[in-house]
């Protein structure tokens, strides 16, 4: 019986519906790009934590096994691991699995690694962020070979090597989907934009402190932070204490296509995160013509209109300089596309 070439993707989460466009947008874009460029490839996703239901469903032609692992520990966790193994066994019987790809190095990639080795299937782990930091207990369990590791950025490859003494053989960067950007131009009415999860790691209190400093020189600033998270109420409180209610707004989470429109209306994307693998928002922002100011530098090469700073003082000075200079150009900068990233990944799987 003819079996379709199948790629199995192991992920902490995957959208429950089209309404989840803001959830893991880079991973969504990657899967969508695979569908577009590899019409004869079947894609099956095993999603561990999200959606918050345990069932098999189909989203835009992709079969998803959702396990809803949230809060399940001990024996219940081990039973989920066994369920994943059984799903993989059944998928192998019914499909020609050309490879297993794990988003992040985690417990899913530990299971996928062992299944792949036992069944002589190519498997790769896409190191994408905090999984490269110290303290990832699954790295010793996975015991990966260098050529099984794909880093999302030069920074992550070096970070992983520094912490685990294994240098990933491959670097495949984050990329944008140019088709998501509308052709029409927008007036740049947003001076400083923030996009991301409002968690301590992202350091959005520094965004507010930057606005406090810059507002002394540019009183009529308009700033927006899109996103939700546990820090949101603290950030709103800090905004009120600093009398910035009319300067910084917090609209919450909006659909990904709308975020891209806002980027075309922004002069600067301020990204004060303390740690970042390769921010999709940053490369989307420079493609939308905005400038980016951040502490993190994902690639060894310099990216035009992406300004790397080391201190809050440097950050404030750079943002002020960009906003004050009438010659600042807001032209699109194409860094990497997801078409290129998908092609590079599938070449590793032999397609």
CATH A-level architecture of the largest domain = 3-Layer(aba) Sandwich
| Alpha-beta content class | alpha/beta
Distance between the termini: 21 Å
Would you identify the regions where 5 or more consecutive residues have pLDDT less than 50? none
**Binned strand content:** 15-25%
What is the assigned CATH homologous superfamily of the largest domain?
Answer: Glycogen Phosphorylase B
Outline the biggest β-sheet.
8 strands, mixed
Biggest sheet, strands in spatial order?
3-4-2-1-5-6-7-8
CATH class assignment of the largest domain: Alpha Beta
Topology, number of strands: 14
Number of domains: 2
CA-based gyration radius: 21 Å
The 3D shape can be described as elongated
Helical content stands at 25-40%
Q: Kindly report the CATH topology of the largest domain.
A: Rossmann fold
Number of DSSP helices? 11
What are the secondary-structure elements, in order, as H or E?
Answer: EHEEEHEHEHEHEEHEHEHEHEEHH
Mean pLDDT: 94
């Amino acid at each position: 019986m003819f079996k379709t070439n199948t790629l199995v993707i192991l992920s902490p989460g995957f959208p429950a519906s089209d309404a989840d466009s803001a959830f893991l947008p880079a991973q969504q874009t990657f899967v969508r790009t695979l569908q577009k460029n590899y019409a004869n490839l079947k894609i099956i996703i095993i999603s561990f934590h999200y959606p918050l239901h345990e069932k098999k469903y189909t989203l835009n032609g992709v079969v998803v096994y959702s396990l809803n692992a949230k809060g399940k520990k001990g024996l219940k966790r081990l039973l989920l691991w066994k369920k994943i193994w059984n799903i993989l066994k059944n998928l192998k019987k019914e499909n020609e699995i050309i490879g297993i790809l794990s988003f992040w190095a985690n417990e899913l990639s530990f299971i996928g690694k062992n299944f792949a080795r036992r069944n002589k299937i190519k498997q790769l782990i896409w190191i994408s962020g905090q999984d490269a930091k110290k303290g990832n207990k699954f790295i010793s369990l996975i015991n990966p070979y260098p050529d099984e590791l794909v880093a999302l950025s030069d920074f992550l490859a070096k970070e992983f090597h520094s912490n685990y003494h294994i240098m990933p053989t491959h670097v495949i960067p984050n990329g944008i989907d140019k088709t998501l950007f509308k052709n029409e131009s927008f007036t740049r009415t947003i001076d400083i934009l923030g996009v991301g999860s409002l968690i301590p790691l992202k350091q959005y209190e520094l965004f507010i402190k930057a606005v406090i400093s810059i507002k002394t020189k540019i009183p009529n600033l308009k700033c927006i932070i899109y996103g939700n998270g546990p820090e949101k109420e603290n950030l709103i409180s800090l905004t009120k204490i600093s009398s910035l209610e009319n300067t910084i707004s917090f609209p919450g989470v909006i659909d990904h296509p709308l975020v891209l429109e806002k980027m075309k209306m922004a002069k600067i994307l301020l990204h004060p995160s303390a740690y970042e693998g390769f921010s999709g928002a940053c490369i989307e922002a420079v493609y939308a013509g905005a400038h980016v100011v951040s502490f993190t530098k994902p690639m060894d090469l310099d990216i035009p209109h992406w300004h790397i700073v080391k201190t809050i003082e440097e950050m404030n000075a750079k943002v002020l300089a960009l906003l004050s200079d009438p010659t600042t150009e807001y032209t699109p900068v194409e860094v990497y596309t997801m078409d290129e990233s998908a092609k590079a990944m599938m070449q590793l799987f032999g397609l």
